[in-house]
Amino acid sequence: MKKRLTLAALAIVAAFTAPAAMAEGSAADGIAQYRAMLAEGNPSELWELAGEDIWKEKRGPKQASLEQCDLGKGPGVVKGASAALPRYFKDTGRVQDLESRLMSCMETLQGIAPENFVKGKWGKGEMEKMEQIVAYVVGQSRDMKVNVDMSAPQMKKMYALGKEAFFYRAGPMDFACATCHGQDDKRIRLQDLPNLTKHEGAAAGWGSWPAYRVSNGQFWTMQHRLNDCYRQQRFPEPIYGSDVTIALSVYMAKTANGGTVMTPGIKR
Amino acid sequence: MKKFLMIAPLALGMQFAVAGDDMHAEFKQMMDSSFKGNGIAEKHRLYQLDFQAACSTEKSPSPAMLKAIEAEQMKTIRWPSDGKYTGDWKSGEKIAISGRGLTWNDKADAANGGGCYNCHQMSHNEISYGTIGPSLLNYGKLRGNSSDMLKYTWGKIWNAKAYNACSNMPRNGDAEILTERQIKDVMAYLFDPESPVNKP
Amino acid sequence: MGNPMRIRAAEKDGVTEVKVLMNHEMETGQRKDSSGNLIPAHFISELTAKHGDKVVLQAEFGPSVSKNPFLSFKFKGGAKGDKVVVSWIDNKGDTRSDEATIG
Questions:
Q1: Which residues fall within 8 angstroms of residue A95, CB to CB, at 6 or more apart?
Q2: How buried is B169 (Cβ within 10 angstroms: 0-12 exposed, 13-18 middle, 19+ buried)?
Q3: Active site (annotated) includes residue A105
Q4: Which pLDDT score, from 0 to 100, does residue A5 have?
């Protein structure tokens, strides 16, 4: 029963299956097959594992855990919480997405300052811990339905602001979110683009981020995803947890309502 | 850079306040507080040119508005200084493939790419192309190289908004994304009979 | 000590399928950082999987394996409730060992 694998054998499985498949079917079929293979070993799980520990760990100047953090379902309730975010929170008087809500919890419960994130670097220091907590929390809504409560007037306003931001063209290339995500069946190079103005596309896009990106081995939160969209739009940089990111999230989540949560996802 | 300060004769921006004045003021305030400059992607990029504002609605602006924008944008086109429309297609291919430039990770003095392949099919050989724009396969072969066709294509690359006011395509010349020299090379890539765009 | 692995093991018709997700940088030694300096190689060099005292898989890894590698393999003879232990050692001498119960 003793087997000896060479590194070559492993590398072949990992790296060369996609091009081989692409030669036969269409490029899109090959990519779909590649993604299906990746999904089996989604490294997001590593972030989820770490995040669960950090959630329960006493941290920060106040030496408290996040187990009293209210993500909208009551203090400490993580199951199903991210499927219902963003939502309006009375205690902060703001509509918040998962990450801005976690920032509030860390500040009030643990004494960890928002500057750690607003001025932080992706994958480093407190931001890395945020990413791990996010992976854990969104994993606790996996296979549930996106269920964002739009009844609060603050949510309706954020939706309208988010929609306006979605179509807002500016910068040296005149791009808006809608330039790439406003039509069906378009792609950039070989990358399919979900039409985020319609339920189907919004469910696919909103439902599959945050995600692990195989191409760079990083776990990207929704804030990171939006940040990089704006980078490619050639805009100035959106501030972490700022209202435009939350407004766009409300716009996407409402449009995705009823779709399936597939987070944390995996991307090529 | 100087462009966004220019006051256009038409009050195109007014069309934009669809959700009411209060909502619009709140929107502007939100955008202003949500972004920060980073490297070459300075904060002022957030502020819209008049036509950008007019093209920021879910529905297309009125036909009269579109015509007015196109006429304005047509004035921005600079024709080749030496009268020559085409350069080196090999260099043009590199420009068409590169999507680099103008993000907050890029340096001010780095050469920008045209990013053509992000949205267009072009060569017979490159399968990794986007579909937001139409296919340009066999561009010169199908259209010939009459002076009208060269001029139209030059203008379209320089400022696509002169031909289609709310086009998704960047204003490569007008917004100083590509240099005149680079546009000549991209033109050659589209028109040269030896270019893989026209030759399988 | 390295970061924890995620291991799952399931037995069906006498065959146990083991899925291992490792948490490792797997740095090739050929990449450069933003200031142009070579990032030193750092990768898992050897992995061993044991069922009880018996080695069921031994693998040599190297710099060509992806970051956070995923490994799936099958062996005969495992029973529900048995333990499977997976260990690795990397080129810097760091090690990690985790276990899973066959379900």
A1: A86, A87, A88, A89, A152, A154, A155, A158, A246, A247, A250
A2: buried
A3: no
A4: 44
**Domain range annotation of chain B:** 2-74, 89-191
pLDDT tens per residue across span B6-24: 444 444 444 444 456 788 8
Element (H or E) spanning B74, and its range? helix B63-74
Ranges of chain A whose pLDDT falls below 50: 1-24
Q: Which chains touch C (3 or more CB pairs under 8 A)?
A: A
List the strands of the sheet with A218-220, edge to edge: A218-220, A211-213, A265-267
SS3 A96: strand
pLDDT in tens, A24-57: 456 667 777 777 777 778 999 999 999 999 999 9
Tell me the whole-structure pTM to 2 decimals: 0.87
CA distance to A192, A207, A261, A262, B125, per residue, from A204 (Å): 11, 5, 9, 9, 31
Task: Write out chain C residues lying below 8 Å of A212, CB-based.
Answer: 68
Question: Is position A232 within any domain?
Answer: yes
Q: Count of domains in chain A?
A: 1
pLDDT one-digit tens code per residue, B94-151: 999 999 999 999 999 989 999 999 999 999 999 999 999 999 999 999 999 999 999 9
**What's the pLDDT at B22?**
84
Predicted-complex ipTM score? 0.90
Per the structure, the count of domains in chain C is: 1
Report the CATH number that the domain containing residue A129 is assigned in CATH.
1.10.760.10
Domain that holds residue C88: 6-101
**B89-191: which CATH architecture?**
Orthogonal Bundle (1.10)
Say which residue the tokens 């808006």 belong to.
A176
Percent of chain B with pLDDT over 70: 90
Task: For residue A175, give its domain range.
Answer: 44-267
pLDDT of residue A28: 67
Is B32 in the A-facing interface, judged by CB distances under 8 Å? no
Residue C1 domain flag: no
**Residue A37 belongs to some domain of the structure:** no
| CB of B85 closer than 8 Å to CB of B154 | yes
Q: Which residues of C touch A218 (CB under 8 A)?
A: none
Q: Is residue C48 part of a domain?
A: yes
| Identity of the amino acid at B54 | A
Of A136, A147, A159, A152, the C-alpha closest to A84 is A147
Task: Enumerate the residues of chain C whose CB falls inside 8 A of the CB of residue A10.
Answer: 59, 61, 65, 69, 71
